[in-house]
Write a structure and sequence with these properties.
This protein is mainly alpha-helical. It has six helices and no strands. The longest helix has 33 residues. It is elongated and about 80 Å long.
Amino acid sequence: MEAHSLVSLEKMQRRIDLDRLVPGWAELHHGSKNPLNWNRLLNKFSDEKVQELCGSDVALYLAFLRWSSKFFLAVSAVNVLVLYLYLFGENDSKKIADNNHYAT
């Protein structure tokens, strides 16, 4: 029972430290049911504050999440562009074959 209370005290101390370092994080975290809310919350924390609060491994992991979310956003934007070209491009193969000047 004593170990359980020690864990809850450590958790409470982390929340107090987090409130001190990043004011307003709890309202942002619990304020809306937006599925992309984690991304706004992730960008609100600086690496130095996270490293001070939780250690270097957590700071490195959150930096990885931050940069991978930006990378996959860029990949998704490129895929949307390719999909747009595929859906609304010329798809009449006979017309394309007639206008192909490079085939001869």
